[in-house]
Amino acid sequence: MTELAGTQTVQPGVRTSRAGRDLPRAVAVGVGLLAVVLASLLWRKELFLLLAALACGAALWELAQAFTRRHLHLPLLPVLVGSTGILVSAYVAGAEAMFVAFLLTAGGVVVWRVLDGSGAQALRDAAAGTFATAYVPLMGGFVMLMLAEADGPARVLLFVLLAVASDTGGYVAGVLAGRHPLAPSVSPKKSWEGLGGSLVLAGTVGGVGLWLAFDASPLLGVVLGVAAVLTATLGDLAESLLKRDLELKDMGSLLPGHGGVLDRLDSLLLTAPLVHTVLLVALPAVGD
Predict the structure, then answer these.
(1) Rounded to 5 degrees, what angle do the CA atoms 168, 151, 198 make?
(2) Which of 27, 123, 209, 212 has a CA-to-CA distance to 203 between 20 and 30 Å?
(3) pLDDT (tens digit, 9 = 90+) per residue, 5-37?
(4) Regarding predicted confidence, which is higher, 79 or 266?
(5) For residue range 213-240, what is the model confidence (pLDDT) as tens digits?
(6) CA atoms within 13 A on the CB side of 34
(7) What burial letters (b/e) apply to 11-48, b meaning 16+ CB within 10 Å?
């Protein structure tokens, strides 16, 4: 997250960084989440699938609560059931099954909502449900496609570390040197200096990670890291724009120091298709 240093109202008794985070809690929660992800990948891939399903479910629930501020009501039950179906289909049967599951979920959302009443409100609710399904579980399905490969844990871990590097590099550089806003009308705290920090750290992690894990060209890893920063930043800004429209600071409060689950997934969601596609094209024989 490419933070721009600045002032912010701080609650008494809460230690915050210059970028406004409760830094000790944020670090503790971040390290804990990374440890859980790493443990699930090293132990059994199915545990990571379960973890992903829970995270997507929590993010969809947060999105449903947020949408009520604009009088949009997600058909949450079919969206949640379909979300699990999309992730499981991607892991078990591949990309074609994932897209079929998405289409079935979108259709189920429309039918479910129409059965509860038709008209303009039903159309708006069904459209919101379809958007939520495409935004969260469909994008998350690309992580399951990576996980399904023989070397899936390594691919997913590289993907996660690229996102962590982008966030950490941007945060540190933004707090220490952030002076020039990147997108002030969307997210005033993000800076060009923070973006530079993200590019440097993610490029380094990508180069070293691809070389160590796959014995592939470090240059390809650097390119992947740079591209991942661009999609992560776009995902972060897209969610910031959505929150601005909904007049929210955070999508939720499930993760102390970070906000909601969707606030942690925003950059990951748009980065997943990129990393999956690049690794699939560049390293097609690794999973055979």
Answers:
(1) 15
(2) 27
(3) 333 333 444 444 455 556 777 788 778 888 999
(4) 79
(5) 999 999 999 999 999 999 999 998 998 8
(6) 16
(7) eeeeebbbbbbbbebbeebbeebeeebeebbeeebeeb
166's tokens: 């982008």
Structure tokens at 110: 């429309």
Task: Retrieve residue 82's tokens.
Answer: 């379909």
Of the listed ranges 87-91, 137-141, 240-244, 269-273, the least confidently predicted one is 240-244
Calpha distance 114→104 (Å, rounded): 15
CB 259 within 8 A of CB 240: no
Q: Which residue has the tokens 């962590």?
A: 164
Residue that is written with structure tokens 């995902």 in the block = 235
pTM of the model: 0.88
How far apart, in Å, are the Cα atoms of 182 and each of 33, 163, 190, 195? 28, 19, 5, 8
